[in-house]
Amino acid sequence: MAVNLKFLALTLTTADAEQTYRFDQPATVISGPSGSGKSSLLMLLKHAVGGDAILTPAVRDHVHSVCAEVLVGDEHLALRRLIGEAGSNQVDVLDPVTLELRESFIIRAEAGQTTLSDRLLSALRFPRASIPVRREGKAAKANVTFQALFAYVYLEAIYIDTQIVRHQQTYFDGMRRALFEIIFGLTDSVLLDLKQRSAQLLTDMKTKTSEHDNVSNFLRESDSRSDDALRAELVQLREMLSLAERTLSDLRSELEESSAADAVLRQELRRAVAGARDANQEVEAASELLEARESVVAQVELDLLRLERSASAIEKLSPFDFIVCPRCMQRLEGRPVREDHCIVCLQHDPPDESVDPAAIQQTREALERQLQDAQAVREADAQVLAAARDRVQQADFLTTTLRRELDLQTRDIVAPRFDAIASSSARVASLGASIDAVTQLRDAWARARSINQEVKDLKATRTRVQADVKSRTLALAARGQLVDDLSQEFFTLLAELHLPWVQTAVIDPKTYLPVIDGNPFESLQASGGGITTCVSIAYSLALLEFGLTHPDVLVPSLLIIDSPRKALGNNPDDQERGNRIYDRFKTLADAYGDRVQLIIADNDTAPIPSDTFSTIPLDYNRPMVPGVAHPGPEHVHRAEDGYGA
């Protein structure tokens, strides 16, 4: 049974006006001259349900938002989406009566968030599935989306005569085929999961095979020894290492025994070294003290010498009265001199006692006693220094003697063992490094074997999964008859259109695309756009009617067609063919009534008057965007020409 999907109305809001277009009849024709906004109106339907629509400059510059009133499954919803970047990734779901906001959904998937596609597919009760795809050579998954399903609903003018459900878009063709299989029940979530798992296993198997090849190439190029040879070499190296470690342990034990024997001698040597250090410190201290004593003696001798010189000068010069200066020989009688002052230096005469010979003698005797005492102390300190130096000499001699004795004792015993220990240690280290190198190579071999086993396990698992895929495919194979039945209806439709030279028409059971007289759809383009347009419309109409007559086929009940008479031509046969297309529209609308909806954009009104068709007329005086004057036919921008996205 066709899934219920229907547009009831579309409201455009600009800064100054608002316009609602209603779709009340089973079939609605949007008519008007080129550039009046027919395709733009259809694109806004696509925009409202979250699609990537092509919008003209008039729409982008003046329309603030669109609100589509839709029936989705059993739900009546109003979907509002802004125009421009502000609303590019969000659609608001409103109450269709009060227009109160119920909820908002993002359009492009983000982790952990429900998208508009999720909401609409749930309302349609359309199976939720992920299809296996390959991205950058790796297995991946792509979720079936409402926007992808809408490609089966909307025949855009730009594709109507060149593609069947955008089949030539490589990135989308896998989704197209998967959707066809879901719609017709040729696959289900179980089979899709199995195919996805099979694809992922194939990717993992290729990755592991490449990894195994890289490791194997490394082993072949880096070392020619096999794993068995490395295993035998590793056993031998470990035996040699064990022997070298025992030898090293024995040498160290012998060295410890020898060290115990000369421990007493070493202890004596340590004490002798400590005694020599103490004696040297005593010498340094005595030398410093003797230097201080010699300084005192020298100072006393200097004071005594100064006293002798002063007394001699006083004794020799005191009897003389100077009448001339003894230096410059100038006469002294005429200059004023204060009493009790020297007439030569003009200083105050010293007291008598300072020049008294007895006082000078007393001072001399005191200095002589000080000199004798200082000399006596100096001699005593000199003896202490001499004794300290003797002790240093004795300590140094003892230390030298003990060291010679220890050297003689250890030269023939300890030194050779030290050499042997060093050699054995180097041997142990070398064997350890060799064992590490062999172990690393063996680890690489083990990794290669592990990877190879993983490849085998992946192959076995994929074989089982492929068997499950085949089994599940066979279980669903009976539904392939539906494709044959669809082919028959498709051919009947084409026959009613009286296409020239068409003898056979089928739906390919592998690609689900039309094949006309044994030729694929692409080869028909040489015959003209009118032929391919008729084939494209017949294909979509056959799908729509097949879904209406088969309760287990999930074709949406809506079909939007932009320019069905595109490229048909103007001769009587072409016009008659256009009439037959509209006859088929009328037949569908009359037969199924509210169960089906056709929305058609065309330059002219329906060529066959009928109450079945409602009309939305557009022209340059009444363009699609409310409140915006159309500049005229010389300034036409058509949505199908790709203005804006």
Automatic annotation (TrEMBL):
The keyword Coiled coil is assigned to this record: yes
Keyword Transmembrane helix set for record: no
Pfam families: AAA_23 (PF13476)
Keyword vocabulary terms for this entry: Coiled coil
Residue ranges of every copy of the Rad50/SbcC-type AAA domain listed in the record: 18-277
Entry coiled-coil feature ranges: 234-293
Alphabetical list of InterPro entries matching this protein: P-loop_NTPase, Rad50/SbcC_AAA
UniProt xrefs under Gene3D superfamilies: P-loop containing nucleotide triphosphate hydrolases
Protein name, per record: Rad50/SbcC-type AAA domain-containing protein
Species in which this protein is naturally found: Streptomyces tremellae
